[in-house]
Amino acid sequence: MNQTALVIIKSMGIGDLVILKSNIDAISKSIKKKVVVLAQKNTRASEILKYDPHVLEVISLDKKGFFNIIKKIKPYNFVQSHVYSDSLRLYLISRLSGIKKNFQYKLFSKKNKNFFKTAKEFTEKTLTSKIDHESKIFWDSKEIDDVKKKFQIYDKTKNIVCGISASGYTKRYPIINYIKLFEIINNKFPCKFFIASGPKDNDLINEIKNSSIKDKCIFFSEMTIAETIPIISACKYYIGNDTGWGQISAALDLESLFIFCDSPSEAYGTWRNNIRVIVPEGLKVCEHNTRGKDKISFDELLTKSLKLIN
User: Fold this and answer.
1) Which of 58, 160, 163, 272 is the most exposed, fewest CB within 10 Å of its CB?
2) What is the DSSP letter of 290?
3) 29 touches 53 (CB < 8 A)
């Protein structure tokens, strides 16, 4: 098998993978070859990187099965590995797989650090050059054209991806406020709302289905990530919580407005210039355990949303 580099991503979230993807791109460009990515299934890496010109293959990083992972990657004869983690387990996996050139965070060093900035600094030090930190997701143009026809996505309409879900209850801005926001926007412009939510968000979905905008909505809850990406690509705006849907939207060049209630805005809201952020009133930044979902100004959200799409 052609020798190339192995890039190991330990982070579990979709958003984490999307933000770290700029580092994958930089490594591929540096060695002038596609790389192999080892990532957990929860990142949906195999779907998100499906058409990526910098990625040869995605291998699943099992939570268990230390020797099974080594057995998986050893036949590739990787010339180098880049490990975006301070994990001793991943260090040993790289070394015992016969990879001679290993780059990794200093062991047990990552706690309380900004993961986006840490990854960027690590890659730039490893490659001894600056990198473009604005990650991009690549997709098949025919698939995008097909969904435009299927869902009647036209420029005359404000096509808005709405991130109503999130990885935890404290990170979710109240759905009643989102409905109020979208009702106001819909009264001002012809709109179509693409509701980014999962199969566990039926309570949120049902509230929207009982609202006045229900006929303007298309729901992602029963779609795979790979099915939603071309739809998102065809849209122009994202308004919603800090969530994987938002990071995907930003990486697909949508003008994006992220609401941060209980996650670090400096790590998840500064990696791309097309992202605007809203944090709880009285704060300059949001962090883990801010618990600020009830301190988000609706007036600020409305003003910034109208500015975004107008």
Assistant:
1) 272
2) -
3) no
Non-local CB neighbours of 249 within 8 Å, separated by 6+ positions: 161, 163, 196, 232, 235, 238, 256
Contact indicator for 25, 54 with CB cutoff of 8 Å: yes
Is pLDDT above 90 for 277?
Answer: yes
Structure token pair of residue 218 = 């298309």
User: 3-state SS of the chain: helix, strand, coil percent to 5?
Assistant: 45, 15, 40
Question: For residues 158 and 189, is the Cβ–Cβ distance under 8 A?
Answer: yes
Three-state DSSP class for residue 102: strand
CA-nearest of 47, 56, 2 to 27 is 56
Tokens of 272: 């791309």
- The answer to whether residue 11 scores a pLDDT higher than 90 is no
- Domains of the chain from N-terminus onward: 5-127 (3.40.50.2000), 141-309 (3.40.50.2000)
Distance CA 148, CA 17 (A): 26
In the chain, count of helices (H) and strands (E)? Answer: 12, 11
Beta bridge partners of 239: 162, 257
What is the per-residue pLDDT across 197-245, written as a single tens digit (0 to 9) for each? 988 899 999 999 999 999 999 999 999 999 999 999 999 999 999 999 9
Distance of CA 133 to the CA centre of its chain: 14
Q: What is the pLDDT of residues 71-86, one digit of tens each?
A: 999 999 999 999 999 9
Helices (H), the chain: 14-31, 45-48, 66-73, 88-96, 115-127, 141-150, 175-188, 202-209, 225-234, 244-251, 265-268, 298-309
pLDDT at 1: 54
Q: How far is CA 8 from CA 43, 95, 101, 223, 264, in A?
A: 12, 13, 14, 27, 23
* Cα 115–Cα 119–Cα 120 angle in degrees, nearest 5: 120
What mean pLDDT is predicted for residues 242-269?
Answer: 97
